[in-house]
Amino acid sequence: MKQPLLSVEHLRVEFGTPANPIVVVDDVSFEIEAGGAVGIVGESGSGKSVTSLAIMRLVPELCRISGGKISFEGNDLLKLPASAMPEIRGRDIAMIFQEPMSSLNPVMTIGDQIGEAIKLHEKMSRGERRARIIELLKLVGIP
Length: 143
Ligand SMILES: Nc1ncnc2c1ncn2[C@@H]1O[C@H](COP(=O)(O)OP(=O)(O)OP(=O)(O)O)[C@@H](O)[C@H]1O
Ligand SMILES: [Mg+2]
Hints:
By secondary structure, the chain is an alpha+beta fold.
């Protein structure tokens, strides 16, 4: 069987103290094939964002990934050193955060913000980068 691109197995995420945990993601499992899409549906506060943040290893402070396994291209992301994550984030796995008012910087243009991620991961001249940013915006219908 083909290995999925991303697999989340029995993920558990909690706030609180280890002795007194407040579990916000409890035994979540799903897989995504390359080129596939998975929608996660649930009421507000059911843990959709925390699940996504856990995959990026960006859970808030005071929050712990206390169980489960997250495999990306066969690597267990939870076993990688934290220092390995910036290379993966924004290149292999990216997230569109929920609140644009707090996740986008209002004093930077959108082009500069998209360019920042490209700059971190790809060797490109300024001109090439600008062309790529415009191409990406065009792809989603933004002139
Ligand atoms: N920074 C935080 N500190 C404390 N609790 C938090 C924090 N972030 C999330 N939680 C709690 O974790 C639980 C899951 O929240 P999460 O944001 O993942 O829900 P969601 O499914 O994304 O909701 P929504 O549909 O409103 O976006 C909720 O009970 C929430 O109150
Ligand atoms: Mg959310």
